[in-house]
Design goal:
alpha/beta; Nucleotidyltransferase, domain 5; five-stranded mixed β-sheet; 9 helices; 38% helix; 17% strand
Length: 269
């Protein structure tokens, strides 16, 4: 996955810089470039992407058993041991606590909107199509959660919210900022995944009261929100993994003049 990421940005950034940032060797990258993968390795890479997408979609709460259930339902046959090995190799582990009893019937999808966007990420004018998502960033031994809203016409971040917990309030605050700063006409499409926060009645009511039209990705398909995925990848490489971040109680996130990327502004304590 790291080599694929480097390959996708060759020409925009130095290969040496990306290798150092992602902690891989240049030799390993060039060897990967000239290697013709076997069918088995191709399948492994495909499932690694699916596992990582599912893990991110459900906010690091799903372990191997529940990820297998989601993938099998989506038509990707795999077993628990196979997914467990991938998660172990990638160093990812579910954050859900002990004692939680998962009931698939109770967890059945509600408030799931149609995918009106259908990967059409072009927009003829501002405030026609917005995309939104949450990402989590490990900083100073704790998780921070960042929710953002992007206008697909300008690719500008028009709303954002940062917090230590992933709540409905977090994403609602990001959307509130977008509505207040842009004042869009009724009918703006607001695309997200169908995570539990985005399906919450409080969030959906707020959206509809302000004239927003909900739109959601298909299950286990992060490519339906590829623009936000790409933004978060760049954000983490350029601002998170490339630098040592120091946060204080007065630290805050601020958008740049272009609002396309985020910078971290730390005030003197």
């Amino acid at each position: 996955m790291k080599y694929e990421f480097i390959e996708s940005y060759v020409g925009e950034y130095s290969i040496s810089l990306m290798c150092r940032t992602l902690e891989v060797s240049r030799g390993g990258y060039y060897k990967w470039c000239h290697h013709t993968p076997s069918e088995r390795s191709k399948r492994r890479e495909r499932f690694e992407q699916l596992v990582m997408c599912t893990f991110a979609q459900y906010r690091a709460r799903y372990g191997s058993v529940r990820i297998v259930e989601e993938l099998n339902e989506a038509g990707y046959a795999c077993c628990v041991n196979y997914v467990f090995d991938i998660m172990k190799e990638r160093g990812i582990r579910a954050r859900n606590g002990k004692g939680f009893k998962y009931n698939k019937d109770v967890a059945a999808m509600t408030n799931v909107a149609d995918n009106l966007l259908r990967r059409d990420f072009e927009s003829e004018m501002p405030n026609q199509k917005w995309v939104t998502d949450i990402t989590y960033i490990w900083v100073k031994s704790r998780w921070l959660f960042l929710a953002t809203v992007m206008d697909l016409h300008s690719r500008r971040i028009v709303g954002w919210s940062l917090g230590t917990t992933m709540t409905v309030e977090l994403i609602t605050n990001a959307l509130k900022m977008a509505f207040e700063s842009c004042k869009p006409p009724k009918g703006v499409i607001i695309h997200s995944d169908h995570g539990v926060q985005y399906r919450a009645y409080k969030y959906q009511d707020f959206m509809r009261k302000h004239g927003g039209v909900p739109c959601m990705s298909r299950q286990v398909n992060c490519w339906d929100n590829a623009v936000m995925e790409s933004f978060y990848s760049r954000l983490k490489v350029e601002l998170i993994y490339a630098e040592t971040i120091k946060l204080s109680k007065k630290s805050k996130w601020a958008s740049t003049n272009t609002s396309r990327y985020f910078t971290i502004a730390e005030e003197d304590t």
